[in-house]
Amino acid sequence: MHQPHPHEPHATHTAYEPHATHAAYDEPPATPRGNRRPAVIAVALLLLLVLVPVAVDRFLAVQVESRAAKAFQQGMHTPLPPEVHVHGFPVLTQIAADRLRDVDITAHDIPAGDTTSLLPVSELSLHLAGLTKSDDNREARARSAQATAGLTYTDISNALGLPISQGSRPDRLKATVALPLGNTVTATATVSTAPGNRIAFQDFQVTAGPLSAAAEAVLDKAFARPLRLQNIPEGLHLRSITTTETGLSAYFSGTSITFHAADPAQHTTPGNTSSHLPT
Fold it and tell me: Which string of DSSP letters, residue by residue, matches the chain?
């Protein structure tokens, strides 16, 4: 029998062991539904804290806008309430301070009065900054304001007694004078601002037709006197006027703009340029 060599190491045999299988991936245990409830409640409360003040503030803004629209309609005698928008958030703090930061008002069909020397305003767009009111609610005042008034050619024609349309330049309009035997004379005139929120017509020039003495007299009479814009808030001053396809566009600006409360017993008088707009 073979004996192992004294210097030969004893061979060691390790029993075969199959490869250890990797432990299966353990998914984290599902969070119990009960543990989610506090998070959901916290989110809901957070949403309430954000949305409820916004909703309340918006409600107050709508109330202020509605009252202003009703007051403007009564004071300016417009057929429909104007569009009013109060800017800035929150409105609640503005109401508490009795000062609205920025207010936009757009009114339509503001009447002029009973005389042909006044022009109705087809559309008036106002931007008021720093609007406050008196303690007795009889007067409102804006720190500053800008406004654009639209005047239709139909109303201008009625005021001047001549058919008026757009001229060839932004500062000119066209007038047509009917003559006997079906003849017509066409003339243009320059439109410009005049003191007292009035529109002046100057430098009329005949562009077509014979200028008879009768036609010249009609043009002289039509363009002799400036037209006054009424129901423009007190403190606004006419800065520029341009012609458009539909009429004239007048731009106003000013500071310390005053609105007076409407007096049912007091009717509009010619030449009165103060506005009636309580808030």
Answer: -----TTSPPP--PPP-PPPPPPPP-PPPPPPHHHHHHHHHHHHHHHHHHHHHHHHHHHHHHHHHHHHHHHHHHHHT-SSPPEEEEESS-HHHHHHTT-EEEEEEEEEEE---SSTTEE-EEEEEEEEEEEEE-TTSSEEEEEEEEEEEEEEHHHHHHHHTS-EEE-SSTTEEEEEEE-GGG-EEEEEEEEEEETTTEEEEEEEEEEES---HHHHHHHHHHHSSPEEEPSPPBT-EEEEEEE-SSEEEEEEEEEEEEEE---TT----TT---B----
